Amino acid sequence: MAFPHRLDAPELPDFSMLKRLARDQLIYLLEQLPGKKDLFIEADLMSPLDRIANVSILKQHEVDKLYKVENKPAVSSSEQLCFLVRPRIKNMRYVASLVNADKLAGRTRKYKVIFSPQKFHACEMVLEEEGVYGDVSCDEWAFSLLPLDVDLLSMELPEFFRDYFLEGDQRWINTVAQALHLLSTLYGPFPNCYGIGRCAKMSYELWRILEQEEDGETKGRRPEIGHIFLLDRDVDFVTALCSQVVYEGLVDDTFRIKCGSVDFGPEVTSSDRSLKVLLNAEDKVFNEIRNEHFSNVFGFLSQKARNLQAQYDRRRGMDIKQMKNFVSQELKGLKQEHRLLSVHIGACESIMKKKTKQDFQELIKTEHALLEGFNIRESTSYIEEHIDRQVSPIESLRLMCLLSITENGLIPKDYRSLKTQYLQSYGPEHLLTFSNLRRAGLLTEQAPGDTLTAVESKVSKLVTDKAAGKITDAFSSLAKRSNFRAISKKLNLVRRIGTDRAAVLRLLNCSELAFTDMTKEDKASSESLRLILVVFLGGCTFSEISALRFLGREKGYRFIFLTTAVTNSARLMEAMSEVKA
Amino acid sequence: MDCYTANWNPLGDSAFYRKYELYSMDWDLKEELRDCLVAAAPYGGPIALLRNPWRKEKAASVRPVLEIYSASGLPLASLLWKSGTVVSLGWSAEEELLCVQEDGGVLVYGLHGDFRRHFSMGNEVLQNRILDARIFHTEFGSGVAILTGAHRFILSANVSDLKLRRMPEVPGLQGAPTCWTALCQDRVAHILLAVGPDLYLLDQSACSAVTPFGLAPGVSSFLQMAVSFTYRHLALFTDTGYIWMGTASLKEKLCEFNCNIRAPPKQMVWCSRPRSKERAVVVAWERRLMVVGDAPESIQYKQLTIQVLLDRLVLRRLYPLAIQICEYLRLPEVQGVSRILAHWACYKVQQKDVSDEDVARAINQKLGDTPGVSYSDIAARAYGCGRTELAIKLLEYEPRSGEQVPLLLKMKRSKLALSKAIESGDTDLVFTVLLHLKNELNRGDFFMTLRNQPMALSLYRQFCKHQELETLKDLYNQDDNHQELGSFHIRASYAAEERIEGRVAALQTAADAFYKAKNEFAAKATEDQMRLLRLQRRLEDELGGRFLDLSLHDTVTTLILGGHNKRAEQLARDFRIPDKRLWWLKLTALADLEDWEELEKFSKSKKSPIGYLPFVEICMKQHNKYEAKKYASRVGPEQKVKALLLVGDVAQAADVAIEHRNEAELSLVLSHCTGATDGATADKIQRARAQAQKK
Questions:
Q1: Distance (Å) from the C-alpha of residue A342 to the closest C-alpha of chain B?
Q2: Lower Cβ count inside 10 Å, N or C end of chain A?
Q3: CA of A515 to nearest chain B CA: how many angstroms apart?
Q4: CA distance A202 to A207
Q5: Which UniProt keywords apply (chain A) (predicted)?
Q6: Would you state the pLDDT for residue A522?
Q7: Same domain, yes or no: A339 and A368
Q8: DSSP code of A162?
Q9: CATH number of the domain bearing residue A135
Q10: CB environment A482-502: b (16+ within 10 A), e (fewer)
C-alpha cells in the first residue's frame, strides 16, 4: 500500500516560504494602523487566515477583537476598524453601511479595508458611490497562494469557477498571473509551458507580460520546476463530476475538507465532541491511504491496527529497563499513531454507513455505464427515480450533467422530462439553475442529428487504450479523462494514441494548445525536468490529484498542484445552482 | 625667457591670484552688466541675462530682452520680454529659469527660452507688489521667497509642488530690512533678516530675535549676509567693517575678520579654496575684492550624480554626447541609452515642421523596441504639443496595450481605449474605461459599444448584478436577450416582491420573455410556477401552515401529511404529476405517518408502477417487519430474493434463488447466511451449486 516514490524522484521545493511571505505582509499591513484595532474578517477568509497567522499573532499586532463580516450592525467599540475581505461588492456595502451609521451618530473612527488577494476598481467605485471613499483607507494583501500540503497550493478562490466559466468574468485571471509570477520569482523560471483552454492562454499571456515588465529578476536563475501545465476546468468536467473513490476524495465528498482540514463529527469520533483534523502528508497514517481506492483502505487500516497492537503487546515480558526505554522512546509515537488510526477507521466506518444507505454500488454502476456509454436508457431511468425520490438535489443534478456530457447533450424528450421532474421535486427556482448549466455547457440538449459522431467514437477508443489498462481499477475511468490524458501524452508516459492532435483538440472542446519554450538557454537540470506544476483553473478534485501522484510515483516524476480551489462534484453543482434569495 | 609667474598678483600675504579669460562671452553688452538682471545656474549651468530692465530714465516703450547663454558664453536663447516688470531671476535645480515679476507672477522658462508655465505668489502681492525675491534650493527642490511691499515674507519651498506659506509679521518693521536671505534648516525653509542692529529668524509660526555667537560688540547695522551653497554656513558683514562667519544656526563662530572698510559691499558669496578645501567668503566692492576664510571643510560634496549630469546634457540637447557617456560608463540600458533616446523622441515630437508620419517613423527607427522606452510617454508629449494624430501613431508602437489607455482616454479616443484595455487583460483598466464611456456617451451608444465587446460586457454585467439592477435589465433589453430577461424577472420575483400579486406579475413578465426567446419549456414552467404560487397562497389561507415556495412534490407531501388526501389527489391531477412520482411520494408520506392501513389500501389501488420492493424497503426503514413481509410476497420474481433477504427470510430467499438457478442471487443469499440458524440454508445452497456444476 502507498508504495514509496522511486529513489530518483526529485525533491519538492519548500513552499512554506509562501506562508512566511503572506504572514509578513499581513503584519506589515496591520502595523499600518498603529494602536488597538478590531478586525472584521470575511467568513471565507477565516480558515486561510488561520493557516497563515493565528489569533496570538494577530493579538501581538494589537488586534483587539475579531468579528465575522456578516449582515449585522457592528457592536465594536474600538476607535479603529480593520476589514479583511475578498474584493466583493456586497462587502463594500457592508463597510459603507457601518461608516455611514457612525457618521449619523456623529462618531469618527479610523477604517481600513484590506483586500485579499487584490482590490478591484469596482469595489472602490462602490465605496465612492456610497460616499465613504474618503473615510476609508484601502490596502491589498497579495495572499494568493496557500500551501495546503507539500505538493498542493490553493488560491482558495472557489468563485473563480462560476465567475469565469458561467459569468465570463475575467478579473481573476490577473490574480492567477500574479501568483504564477510570484512562483517564478521564488522558484526560478519554468522552462516548458503548456496550456489547454482559453483561460489558460489568457493567464499565460498576462503572466508573460508581468515577467517582461520585471525582466532581470528571474534572469540567470536556475529553474527548479521543469514543466508547467495550465488547464481550464471546462476542458474536462467529467472527471470532476464523478463520485470519488479514493480515500481523500471520499472524505471530501462525505465530510467536506475545508482549507486542508476536516471536522469529524460525533459519528466519526464516537464521542460527543467533534474533532478538527488537519489532513496532509504530516499525518503518517493518512498519507499512506489518501490516494488509495476506498475498498483497499479498510483492510489496510485493520492490518495497521493489528501491527500496532502487537507493538503494544511487546511490553509484556519486558524488564524494567526495557520498559523505561519503551515508554520514553516508543510509546508517544505509538499513541499518536493509535489516535490517527482510530480517527481514520472512524471516518471509514462512517463513509461505509452513508454509502450503503445511498446504494453507492448502484450509483457507481450507473456512473460507470454513463462513462462507457452503454445502458443509457437504464441510466436515464435511474436518474429519474433519483429525482422522483428526492434523494438529493445536488446529486440528481450531477447525474443529469454527467449524462448530458457523456451523451453530448440529452435527447430533447429526456431534456424536457428530466428538467420537469427536477423542478417538481426540488422547486421551480431551479429553472435558473438549468439556464446556468446550459450556458456553462454542463446540461444541454442535443441538436437534431447530433448524436454520437465519429469523433466521439474515438473517445471510447481512448478508454480502452491498453496503456491505460495498466493503471489500477481506481483510475480506470480517470484514464479517459482529458487532463490526465493530455499530461500523460505530453510527457510520453502513456503510449501515443493513434488519434491525431486535431481530433484530440476537438475532443477536449478547446481551440488552442499553447506549447511554448520559455527559456532559450537550457539551464534546467534533469532533476527539475521531472518536477511538474499543474495549474487547474476553476478547481481540481482530490481524485485528479491522486491520479497524478500515482502517475508520478510510477514514472519517477513529482507533480505539484496549483488550483484556484479544491473542488468536487457537489461544489461545482452548487456553484451553478440558484437559490432563493 | 618665460616668466610663468608674471601674471600672478599677490592677494594678502600668502595667496596669489591671476586673471585670464576662460571663455569669451558672446554677449554684446551696450549697458553695464550691473544694469542687467543676471542669474547663473549652479554647477556651471546656464546664465540668464535680462537686458535693459525697467529703469526709470528709459522709455517704457523699449522692451527688455531676455537672453540665455551657456556657462561658456554660447547664446542659447534670446527673446523679447513682453510680460511685467521682473524683480528677480533664478534657476531651479531642474535648470528652469524662474522670473519673478513685481505683480507676484512667476514665469518659468526652459533652457532654450521655451515657456513652460507660470504661477502666482498669491493675490496679496497684486496690490503690494514685490520688493525683492530670492530663489533658493532645498532637498525637495527649488523655492521662491519674496518680500512684499507690505514688508511681509511669503515663500514656497518647492515650486513644482506649489504651497504658499505666509511668514509671520516682524514686529516693528517699518521699512525694508537692510538685508535678508532664505535659510534651510532641518528640512524647513526659514527667512533670516536684519533690521538695524537686530537679526530675526522667521519660521512658519514665529518670529524670533537671534544673536550670532561671539559677535563683536558695536554693530549698529548688518549690511550684507551670505549663506553657503549647502545652507550650512552664514557670513555677516556689519557697518563696522566686521565680518562674522559661522554656522547658519548662528550658534557657532568659525572665524571673524575686520577689514576696516565700512562701505557696504556690492556682493558677498561663499567659495572654497581649491587646494586647501577651506571655506571662504569673497567680498566685492566697486574696485576691491577680498577673500576671507578660515573655515576648514572636510566633507567633499558630490552633488552632481551621473544621472543629473546626463539630464543636463539632455536638457542642452546634446543627445549623442550623452549616449556616448552612457556607453562609456556602461550604464544599464534602461537608465542610460533608452532614457536619452526617449528624451530625444520627446524633443523630436515638438518639431512642428516635420510631418506626423516622418516623426513617427524617425522615432521608431531610432528606438525600435529598446527596453525601457515608453512610447506612451512620448505620445503624451506629442499630445501635449497638440499633435493628437502623431500621438495615436506613436501609441501604436507601444507594446503594452495597458499603457496606451490613459492617454487615449485623455485624447477622448475612449472606444479605442476600450479595445486596448481589453487587449491588456487588465479588468480594472477595462472597468475604468467603461466608467469613462458611460459618462461620455449616451446610454444607447454606451450599450452598443458594450455589445461589441463581450469581455467588457460580462464585466459590466457582473457589476450591475450587484449594484445597478435596472441597468442590467436595460442591457438585456437592448440586446433583445429575452432568455436572460426572463431569468432576470424570475430572480426579481424572489428578491424584490413580497406580495403574491407582485410575484405573479413578475413571473408573468418572465414567461412572456421566455415565449419571445422561443423557450417554450421555460415559459410553461414559469406559468406552472404562477399557478402553484396562487394555489399555495389559497392553501395557506384555507388550511393554515406553510405552503408558499415549497416544490410541487413537497406541497403534495405536506397535504398528505396533513391528512388532506383529496386535495393532494386534486393537485396531482391538476399538475399532471406522473404516476411513478405520485407512488413514491405517497409511499414515503404514508410510511412517515405510519399509516399502515392507508398504505395497504394504496398499494392495492392498482398495480404499482414502481414495483413492491420499495414498499418492503420503506417498511423495514420504519422497523415494521410485519408490514414489510406483506409486501415481500408481492414483489416480482426479479427482486424477490432481495425482498426476502430484506425481511430476514434467508431460507425462503435461498429457495427462490435455487429455483432461479441464478449464481449472483445464490452468492447474495450465501453472504447473508451468518447466524448458526442459517447453517442448514448455507449447506442447501452449496449443494445446489454443486449440482449445477455437475450438469
A1: 27
A2: C
A3: 20
A4: 8
A5: Endosome, Lysosome, Membrane, Protein transport, Transport
A6: 56
A7: no
A8: I
A9: 3.40.50.2060
A10: bbbbbbbebbeebeebeeeee
Whole-angstrom distance, CA of residue B242 vs CA of residue B237:
6
- Indicate if A252 and A211 belong to the same structural domain: no
Residue B106 contacts residue B96 (beta carbons within 8 Å): no
Contact B462 A169 (CB under 8 A): yes
Q: Residue A192 carries which DSSP code?
A: E
Q: What is the DSSP letter of B159?
A: G
**A200 and A114, same domain (yes or no):** no
Chain B: residue nearest A90 by CA? B466
- Structural domain containing residue A428: 364-440
Determine, for residues B428 and A209 on separate chains, whether the beta-carbon distance falls below 8 Å: no
CB contacts of A129 in chain B (<8 Å) are 467
**Which of A118, A141, A164 corresponds to the end of one domain?**
A141
Mean per-residue pLDDT, B536-562? 91
Query: How many Å separate Cα A315 from the centre of its chain?
Result: 44
pLDDT (0 to 100) of residue A470: 32
pLDDT for res B583: 92
pLDDT along chain A (581 residues), means of 10: 67 92 94 91 92 91 90 82 93 92 90 93 91 92 94 95 92 94 90 86 89 66 86 88 91 93 88 88 89 86 86 80 82 84 90 79 87 87 92 93 90 93 93 93 80 43 35 37 44 37 43 50 70 93 90 86 95 87 49
In angstroms, rounded to a whole number, what is the distance separating the alpha carbons of residues A240 and A242? 6
Residue A69 shares a structural domain with residue A94: yes
Mention every residue, 6+ apart, whose C-beta is less than 8 A from residue A188. A218, A221, A222, A223, A224, A225, A528
* Residue A561 host element (H or E): strand A558-563
Tell me the pLDDT band of B53, cut-offs 50, 70 and 90. Answer: low
CATH number of the domain at A432, please. 1.25.40.850
Query: CB B549 to CB A385 under 8 A?
Result: no
Contacts of B585 in chain A (CB under 8 A): 388
Number of structural domains (chain A) is 4
Tell me if A423 and B584 make a contact (CB, 8 A cut-off): no
**Would A492 be classed as within a structural domain?**
no
Nearest Cα of chain A lies from the Cα of B496 at a distance, in angstroms, of 9
- Inter-chain touch A424–B581, beta carbons under 8 Å: yes
In this complex, how many residue pairs, one in chain A and one in chain B, have their CB atoms less than 8 Å apart? 118
**Residue A285 and residue A270 share a domain:** yes
CATH of the domain at A209: 3.40.50.1910
B430 to chain A, minimum CA–CA distance in Å? 10
Last residue of a domain, one of A338, A358, A378: A358
Model confidence pTM above 0.80? no
